[in-house]
Automatic annotation (TrEMBL):
Domain of life: Eukaryota
The FAD-binding domain, residue ranges: 7-173, 310-349
InterPro entries: FAD-bd (IPR002938), FAD/NAD-bd_sf (IPR036188)
Protein name as annotated: FAD-binding domain-containing protein
Keyword field: FAD, Flavoprotein, Monooxygenase, Oxidoreductase
Length: 412
C-alpha cells in the first residue's frame, strides 16, 4: 500500500522550523520549509551572533533526537557558562565559573548552520516571504492557501507557523497579537576586544550583567575575541527609537545622547559607560553607515491559546513570544518541534497502516500537543516575567546576585 503523502508546510527557517524539518526528514516524511531570508553565505554565518544556552529537557533533547548532540558539543567551546553580576557602577557583586550550569551555549549562527547541514537543499525555499494565509474548502477537503507574492500561491494540507513574533499563520487561529513589554533593547558588538584588556577582564569569559535603575548593560563573550552587548532600558514609550531620534543615528553618533541622559545611562558609572561607548564606536567602525540597532521588545499574553483547527498550528515565538529573561525562547521552540514531530510521525504512520486520512489521524494528537504546549509555556512565561521583575527593579544587581547565591548555597 502506498504511503499517504500529505502536503506539509513549515513557515519559518529558525531553530523551531529547522528542528521540526530535520526530525520529519529522518522519518522520510515530506515537507517544505519556507524562509523569508535569502540563504546565508559562509561569510554571514561566520559573523558574530547572539549566544543561546540550551536546556537538557528541551533544546538538548531535540538535538539528541536529531542525531546532532555530539557535533553540537564541538561548537560549545566558543564561550564559557560563567556569570558576573555588577551594579550600575561596575562593582562586582557576584562571580562564578558556571560549574553548576548544565546549559551549554552556542552561537545562533552555529546552531542554524548545524540544523541546516543535514537537511536536503530542496526542502528549504529561501527568500519566500509569506504575504497571507487563507483557509479554503476544496473538493478534497480543507486546504490552506499560502500566498508568497512573486513565487505564487500554494495549497497545503497542514501548515505549521514557525514564523516568529509577527506570525502571519497565527492570524488563521487567533486575533491575539504581541504587546509591548515596556523594554527597549540596543544591540552592539565589540569585535576587537583584545584592544581593551580592562573591559575584557570586566566582562569575563561568559555572561556579564550591570544592572540598576531598571536598566541593564549585559554582554556575552563570543568566538574570535568578540563580545555582544545588549543594553536594556525600561521605558513606557513603545515608539522611543523614533521619538528619541536614536533609530536614525549610527551607534557612534547616538552614544553621547544615551550616556548623558539620566533617564538612560547618565547615572551609570564610568566603566560601564566606557563599555557601552566602546561597543558603539566598534559597531560603527565595523559597519559604517549602519543605523543603531534599537528595538522595543514584545511578548504574547501569558497562557495565550487559540481555538484548535485540524490543519494549522503554531510553534516557537509564533505560539509563545516572551522576553529573553529566562533563556527559554529557543528551548521552548525546539521542545515544541520535538513533540509536534512525534505527533506528526505517529499520525503519518497510522494513515499509512490504515489507508486513512493523515489529518484525521493527526487531529486528536494535535489537540493534545496544543493543550500541553499552552500549559508548558504558561509556566515558562510566568518564570520569564518574574525574572524580568527581578533584573529590572531599582536594584536589579543586588537581587540577581542574591539569586545566584541562593542557587549555590542550595547546591552545597
Amino acid at each position: 500500500m502506498a504511503r499517504s503523502q500529505p502536503e506539509i508546510a513549515i513557515i519559518g527557517g529558525g531553530p523551531a522550523g529547522l528542528t521540526l524539518g530535520l526530525l520529519l526528514c529522518k522519518c522520510d516524511i515530506p515537507f517544505t520549509i519556507f524562509e523569508l531570508r535569502e540563504k546565508p553565505t559562509e561569510e554571514e554565518i561566520a559573523k558574530p551572533s547572539g549566544m543561546l544556552d540550551l536546556h537538557v529537557e528541551s533544546g538538548l533533547a531535540a538535538l539528541r533526537e536529531c542525531g546532532l548532540y555530539d557535533r553540537f558539543l564541538q561548537l560549545t567551546d566558543e564561550t564559557s557558562e560563567a556569570q558576573i553580576v555588577s551594579d550600575k557602577d561596575g562593582n562586582i557583586l557576584h562571580t562564578d565559573d558556571g560549574e553548576l550550569s548544565e546549559r551549554p551555549e552556542v552561537s545562533r549562527h552555529a546552531l542554524t548552520n548545524l540544523l541546516t547541514t543535514d537537511l536536503p537543499s530542496n526542502t528549504i525555499k529561501w527568500d519566500h516571504k509569506l504575504l497571507s494565509a487563507t483557509s479554503l474548502t476544496t473538493p478534497s477537503g480543507t486546504k490552506i492557501e499560502l500566498d508568497f507574492g512573486p513565487h505564487g500561491k500554494l495549497l497545503f494540507d497542514f501548515v505549521i507557523g514557525a514564523d516568529g513574533a509577527w506570525s502571519r499563520v497565527r492570524s488563521l487561529l487567533t486575533d491575539v497579537k504581541p504587546k509591548y513589554a515596556g523594554t527597549q533593547n540596543i544591540t552592539t558588538n565589540i569585535t576587537k576586544l583584545a584592544k581593551y584588556p580592562h573591559l575584557a577582564e570586566l566582562i569575563g569569559r561568559g555572561s556579564f550583567s550591570a544592572l540598576g535603575l531598571r536598566h541593564g548593560v549585559t554582554s556575552h563573550r563570543l568566538s574570535q575575541d568578540a563580545a555582544r552587548l545588549y543594553t536594556f532600558f525600561t521605558l513606557p514609550d513603545e515608539d522611543f527609537p523614533s521619538s528619541s531620534g536614536l533609530s536614525s543615528s549610527t551607534a557612534a553618533a547616538a552614544k553621547d545622547q544615551i550616556l548623558q541622559d539620566d533617564a538612560l545611562l547618565g547615572r551609570f558609572g564610568p566603566i560601564i559607560k566606557e563599555l557601552f561607548a566602546v561597543s558603539c564606536d566598534e559597531e560603527t567602525q565595523d559597519n559604517p553607515g549602519s543605523l543603531l540597532d534599537i528595538k522595543p521588545l514584545y511578548t504574547l499574553p501569558i497562557g495565550a491559546s487559540w481555538e484548535h483547527r485540524a490543519n494549522v498550528t503554531l510553534i516557537g515565538d509564533a505560539a509563545h513570544l516572551m522576553c529573553p529573561w529566562a533563556g527559554e525562547g529557543v528551548n521552548l521552540a525546539m521542545w515544541d518541534s520535538l513533540l509536534l514531530a512525534h505527533a506528526i510521525i505517529e499520525a503519518y504512520e497510522a494513515a499509512w497502516r490504515n489507508g486513512g486520512s493523515f489529518i484525521n489521524a493527526l487531529d486528536p494528537l494535535l489537540q493534545k500537543f496544543e493543550v500541553d504546549q499552552v500549559e508548558r509555556n504558561k509556566e515558562k512565561a510566568q518564570e520569564t516575567y518574574d525574572n524580568g521583575q527581578m533584573l529590572f527593579g531599582e536594584d536589579g544587581a543586588k537581587a540577581f546576585a542574591e539569586f545566584f547565591q541562593r542557587v549555590y548555597s542550595m547546591a552545597q
